[in-house]
Amino acid sequence: MSFRRIAAWLILAVVFSASLPFHVKAQQPYILAAEDVLEVVVFGNADVSRAVTIRPDGMISLPLIGEVAAAGLTPEQLRRQLTQLFASFLRNPQVAVIVREFHKVRVSVLGQVTKPGVYELAQGATVLDALAAAEGLATDAGLGEARLIRGQDAPVLIDLERLLLRGDLASNLALLPGDALVIPEDPTGRVYVLGEVARPGIFPLRGSLTALQALTLAGGPTRRAMLNRAHVIRRGIQPPQPAAEVTLATVVVAKQSAAGIQLIPVDLLKVIREGDVARDVALRRGDVLYVPENPIALENIALLLGVAVNASVLLR
Q1: Is residue 314 part of a domain?
Q2: Residue 286 buriedness (CB in 10 A; 0-12 / 13-18 / 19+)
Q3: Whether residue 148 sits in one domain with residue 136
Q4: Percent helix, strand, coil in the chain (nearest 5)?
C-alpha cells in the first residue's frame, strides 16, 4: 500500500471521528484542605506575598490581613476572598493563588491484605489505589463486602467481587483523609477435621492440603478411629443426587440432598499402611474431614465385657 493511500485513509479516519458526538466530562474544581502548600502572590507587593501551608484548623496566616479560612474553598474562591481583604490595605491588588503541593490522603488498610498499615496516598486516591499500596489481597481474603469506615458514619459496604472481577468502577470510591478500608477474610478459606482425631478443629487452607495432611494437623487419629471409613463432606454446585442417608458405623454423618452436599470416601488406612497416595483426597475450601468411631475398638469391647460381667453377677 502506497504512502499516499495510507495518508488518505488516516485523513478520512480523522474527519469521520470529528463528525461523531464527543462528550467531555467537566472536571470538578479542586477543594483546598489541610496540609496543602499554597503560594499567595500579590503582584507588585513582594513583602506580603507568601508560601503558606493550610493548618489542621483550615486557616492560613498572611501579612496585613491575618488569619484567613482556606480549607473547603477552591483556589479561585480563596483568590477572590484575599483580593477583597487586601483591598482594605492596597490599591487595586492583583492576587494569585497557586497550589504548590497537594495534601496527602492518609488512610488505613486493614484485614486480609498483603501489608496492612497506614498509607499516604495522592489526592483523589480510590479504593483500588489503597489496595495497590497494600500490595493487593492476601491469600485468605474474601471477595465479599469490604467496609469503608469514615468517621462516625455507618460503614460503607464495597462489593469486592463486582469491583475486582466484574470491573464495576462504581464501587471504586474516592477516599478521604482518615478513612479505614477493612478487607474481610474468606469464610471458606479453611477446612474442618472432626470425629476421632486428637485435636478436632478448624485449620487454615493455604496452598494444597490432602485428607492425610489434615489428619496430621489434627494430631492424628485416636485409638477408636475407623480410618478406612473416613469421608470428606463437601458442599458443591453439582446436580442434586437422590436423597440417601449415609451411616458411618453407628453415626449418621449427612444426607445427600438438593443442597449439593457430596460425601467422598477416603480410605486413610490404606493411604497410611500401603502408601497408596492415589486414594488420598485433595481438600477444597470449606471441606469437612470426618473420621468415624470404630464400634469394635478395644476400648468399646472392654466396656461391653465389663457390662456383661456386672450383669452376670447381678443375675446370680
Answers
A1: no
A2: middle
A3: yes
A4: 25, 30, 45
Comparing CA positions, the residue from 143, 39, 151, 45 lying closest to residue 97 is 39
Is there a contact between 264 and 231 (Cβ–Cβ < 8 Å)?
yes
53: cell is: 501551608
Q: Find the radius of gyration of the CA atoms of the chain.
A: 35
| Whole-prediction pTM | 0.50
* Residue 52 forms part of a structural domain: yes
Look up the domain containing 257 and give its range.
190-298
Residue 251 burial (CB count, 10 A) = 11
How far apart are the C-alpha atoms of 10 and 161, rounded to whole Å? 41
Structural contact between residues 197 and 225, judged by C-beta atoms closer than 8 angstroms: yes
CATH number at residue 91: 3.30.1950.10
Query: Higher pLDDT residue, 304 or 79?
Result: 79
Give the mean model confidence (pLDDT) for residues 206-221.
90
260-285 b/e (C-beta count within 10 Å ≥ 16 → b): ebebeebbbbbbbeeeeeebbbebee
Average pLDDT of every residue of the chain: 80
- The CATH number for 242's domain is 3.10.560.10
Grid cell, residue 280, equals 488420598
Rounded CA separation 129/145 (Å): 17
Where among 138, 161, 183 does a domain terminate? Answer: 183
Nearest to 236 by CA among 256, 251, 209: 256
What does the pLDDT look like over 86-143, one tens digit per residue?
999 999 999 999 999 888 889 999 998 999 999 999 888 999 999 999 999 987 788 8
Largest distance between two CA atoms of the chain: 125
